[in-house]
Amino acid sequence: xxxxxxxxxxxTEFILLGLxxxxxxxLFLFFFFSMFYGAAVLGNILIILTVIIDSRLHSPMYFxxxxxxxxxxxxxxxxxxxxxADFLNEHKTITFQGCMSQIFFLHVFGGSEMxxxxxxxxxxxxxxxxxxxxxxxxxxxxxxxxxxxxxxIGILHSASxxxxxxxxxxxxxxxxxxxxxxxxxxxxxxxxxTYVLEILVLTxxxxxxxxxxxxxxMSYAIILxxxxxxxxxxxxxxxxxxxxxxxxxxxxxGPLIFIYIWPFESFPIDKFISVFFTVFTPVLNPMIxxxxxxxxxxxxxxxxxRHVGSKQIF
Length: 314
Hints:
314 residues, mainly alpha, 3-stranded mixed beta sheet, 73% helix, globular
């Protein structure tokens, strides 16, 4: 529909086109994503509980890891439950307020996770490059501040998007070709020329992503150079820990490169990238950290044995 429509006719809801229009495929996707969503939530909650319960994991690295797991639970929950429910609904709609909420939470959790990944890289830098000062520098107060900064930046980053998006005139088209309200797709539905707004969105998100990526790249480059120069017995353990961190960073920032090369062009792979961020990444993160981390695996085994032992007593 033409964007030059009567601005007095305001859109009160959006239609989400979802991943497929086939009923059979949607039924399959309902069970498929229900399983993955459950795995994402349970896996990350298990990491959080393990870090809280096991005193051996009361260290800065695992404190940050548990906060990453909490963000992953939030990231998996802001849109996935509605997507799963919509597979069983013929009319997939979302209210204007619900749409704005999805945009807000997506950028809060995404921005916070980017900054938290930088904080985790800084933690590994101090641990490997300045081991004698590690506990002094990475105190509980510093870790709490780093987590607080990550959430603050995420909220400010998201609020800056929402400030102009919520006030746009939506008076005509209301179909969003995704399973949630993706900001670039929603902006395109506004009844005015959105070129400047699209540039602002690209600049806002792109700048935060670029700064975080450069900080991560420099941190891990220095760390890998330091590890290469060392010949101690802890080198293999340090590399194992680093490989988990770097894998998560690649999984998070890899799709972003594609998004910012063609930010406002629609491609079939766009929906896959959306699913990857909201469903698969929260599932993969706990798997990567547990499979590559001996301490976490032992702590989980200890937690499981304690649970089994308590059930046998009763």
